[in-house]
Amino acid sequence: MLKLYAFDRSPFGWKVRVALAEKNVQYEMIAPENKNEDPAFAKLNPFRKTPVLLLEDGRTIYESTVINEYLEEAYPKPAMLPKDPVERARVRMIEDTFDQYFYPAQRDFTNAQFDYQPPTLIRKKADKVDHKLLEESRMKLHEQLQRLEQELKGRAWLGGEIFSLADAAVISSFTMSLKVLGILPDPKYPKIGDWVARAMARPSYKQSAPKEPVKIKEG
Predict the structure, then answer these.
(1) Which CATH number does 85-217 carry?
(2) Rounded to two decimals, what is the model's pTM?
(3) Least confident stretch, 33-37, 50-54, 169-173
(4) Which CATH fold would you assign to the domain 2-74?
(5) Three-class DSSP category at 28
């Protein structure tokens, strides 16, 4: 059986769990302890980051995007990339944009106003809030949401007619993080709102969602 080294609330681990669930691939999930000091974990991923997928033959694959690309090739049904090469590239661009731009803005928006003690976000005192970072990251998030709202125009999913690797990538933000942070739902993004409802109804969402979601505690 495959083994997935990941953390329950990590957006990147969640993204892989969604793909595994969509493809009905059985696996064992392991939350590594002391991954930064454990030499055994360093053998799985020399960069000591999760997620890591341990194959049955002992080889490992790391980086969430690479893992999901592997799953798409090793378990091609149901397809999570469109057939058309340009559409495949579009889906990959959305996924890469999430990793490179969307998630960093979300992380800055969170860190500017909260301290994190898993699974709780503890609101900082007013004089400890980084208001400049807060507003800059808020603006970046809305820029990305506007773009993704347009990507959903005329499409049921970011992958068009199919629930794609891009949909798996943004599921953590759209359905949990941004809701907890008060960014979503927003009437300016009706297509994203509809997407959230459809995504949360999928069996893969119910199977992969964190057992203990993030919550806010007022400081």
Answers:
(1) 1.20.1050.10
(2) 0.96
(3) 33-37
(4) Glutaredoxin (3.40.30)
(5) strand
